[in-house]
Structure formats: C-alpha cells, structure tokens
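tl;dr need the bound structure. longer version: we got a ligand (pyridoxal-5'-phosphate) that a collaborator sent over and nobodys looked at where it sits. i said id run it. heres the input, straight from their email, havent touched it
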Amino acid sequence: MFSTRTDWDLRPSPLFTLLQQKRASGEELLDLTESNPTKCGFIHHSSKLVGPESLQRSMLYEPDPKGLLSARQAISDWYKRQNISVTPDRIILASSTSEAYSFLFRLLCNVGDVVAVPKPSYPLFEYLARLNDVLCQDYRLAYDGEWHVDLSSVDEALSSNAEALILVHPNNPTGSFVKKEERDRIVSEARARKIPIIVDEVFSAFSFANDERCAVSFAGTESTLTFTLNGMSKLLGLPQMKLAWIVVSGPDEECAKAVQRLEVIADTYLSVGTAVQQALPQLLNNPEAMTQKILTRTRSNYESLRTACAAGSPATLLHCEGAWNAILCLPAKRSDEEWALELLQSLGVLTHPGHLFDIEAKSCIVVSLLPEHKVFSEGIRRILAAVE
Ligand SMILES: Cc1ncc(COP(=O)(O)O)c(C=O)c1O
C-alpha cells in the first residue's frame, strides 16, 4: 500500500525510549540537543514583526511564484550590504531550506540520480534525498586539528556522475567554513564537469572568528551555476515563520533557464505565507540584532567548553569555527550510542550520538551551543565529571 521511499524503520531508538521514560517520570533533564532558538530564550519582542500591519497587507492574495517582490528586494538589499550583488529576479522563496532542497533536487535530478553530500553533516539529507528519489554520495570532511574538505573525495563523488554537489557553509555539526582555496578548487572542478553547486549558508552569520581564510557567501559566484540557500530559521532565529530562499547565480543563460524552471516548481506549491513575506523587509532590516545575541551565546558556550576540555581532560573538543553545535570526543571505552544512553540514564543529560551526523570516530557526542549558559555549563560539568 505504501511507497518504498517511506519504508523507514520507525521503531523508537533505545535513546528515544529512555528519553520518553525519563520525561514521563517527571525527571528534570538538561537538554544539550536543543536547537530551537525560541526555546533557548531568543524571542523577538517587537509586536510589529508579523503583526496587524503585515496581516492587513496580506488580506489581498496576489501570489508571485518566486515570492513577493518586496521580500525578494529586501533579500537583495541584505546581500548588497555584504557587497554581494544579487538581483531580485534571481531569488526564489520557499517555506524552508528543506523545501528549497526539494525544489532543487526536483530541478536537477531524475529518479535514482546522485547528489554529493558532505560527511559528517546534517542528518536530514538522507530523508530529503530519499523523498525526492535521489541518492546521496558522500564526500569526506577530514579532521587534523581543524576540518578540511577532502578534495580528493569530492573529485571521486563528482566522477560518480553526481548531478549536484552540496556544500554546507559552515557545516553542521563540524562548524567548519569552506576555505577560499577549497572554494576555488571546487568551483573550478564543478564548472569543468558542468555540475551545479548547492550551498547551504543557513549558519553563515554565526562565525566565532573572522578568519580571512574562509570563503564569503557563494551567492556572488559567477563562474558556475550555483544555488545559495539561506532563510529566517537560523539567521533571524525564527524557524516557525517558514521563509527561506534560493539565490541563483552563475552564467546568465544557465541562470535564466534554472530560474524559469524553479518558478514553475514554486508556482505548483505557492507555499510561503503572504504575511511573513510582507514582514520580511522589516525583519531583514537589522537581522544582526538577533544574530549577535545568538552568536554571543554560542561563542560563550563554546569558549567555556574549550576551557573545560583543556588541560588533561579525557574529553576532546573538536575545533569549531561557528554554527550551533560542537563535537566532543569521549573515551573510546564506550560507543557514541552507549555514551549518550549513559549520560541520559545516569546524569539526566541529553546529547546526540555522533553517528546521527555520520561522524566516523566511534565515541563522539554532539552538543548544541544554544542552551542557556547555566543549563549548558551544568550539563558539560556533569559529563566531564563522569568521564573523568
Ligand atoms: C545545515 C542545515 N541546513 C538547513 C537546516 C534547516 O533549515 P530550515 O529550518 O530552513 O529548513 C538545518 C537545520 O538544522 C541545518 O542544520
């Protein structure tokens, strides 16, 4: 009766089962997986956000498949303030970055085609690909004190007939930005093979240090067909508003064709609500207000984690350049899953096992840097005391 693409193993994992039991028993837990900004104290207090004005202006339904021009103009202005020229006609709105990926897989791939994705990375790729009848071919991010794109594995993935290459800039959970040198090699390889690049920049505003080696936004890429994704969920800490965008850049003729086709895909769903589009110009006027608040929290949690893991701790913190997660390698006597279970069972601290993000090392956990400092530092204190 059901499609094979939805034939998932839906049995709850032991970690999820334990979490349910703990919650049912009323035990107070320290959740170091929380990645919802609105649950970590980041609340917009302006009543004008999607208030009566935007709602009033959305009473007349005049959909534009690409999204309202006023919203696309606001996005274009936001890039202009970063010295990147993106015209509104090269921007397409979607209700989330996840939906934007689906639009792009539909645009670029046929059934059974392959897209190259970083490993480790964001667990949703597997689902997004499968739901769109696409297969993922991993390329590696390698760690030697910091993360690098393993360019030879990118070459391998591209030569396995990939229809698109995905970069996550910075990546989740490694927090690593693509470096300029890596960008130059990847862009020239993609251009030579005529393979479009999809660049997920949802965490690009969350950099801990202004490292000169990091590439800026790919939205200004001209030499090869590039789709750059961003949106309100991370940039403004407003995942519930459901607005993201795709910037199409590259050679004119290819961009024009891509935009035309994307417009039909977007027109088929018209999924972005009018009120949020009406509100976007005001929201994007000063996203830094929220970005800076979040960045102050993530940076301070990361720094305290670094201090706690320094000098003789059996836990090793992997170097992180930004974004909202950090990777902690715990002693190899337990697997990542066993650690996550043990930390929840004995300490009441919820963490992600690293395999969820395809981390190769066997005993890593992933912690969110978003939780309030008190929760974060107590969770980390308990974990480090236990591993010692
Ligand atoms: C790298 C990355 N891209 C995209 C998303 C999802 O963004 P959206 O809420 O816009 O779908 C996430 C969510 O965690 C993410 O980690």
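gonna send this back to them w/ a short note. The chain has two domains: 4-43+289-387, 59-285.
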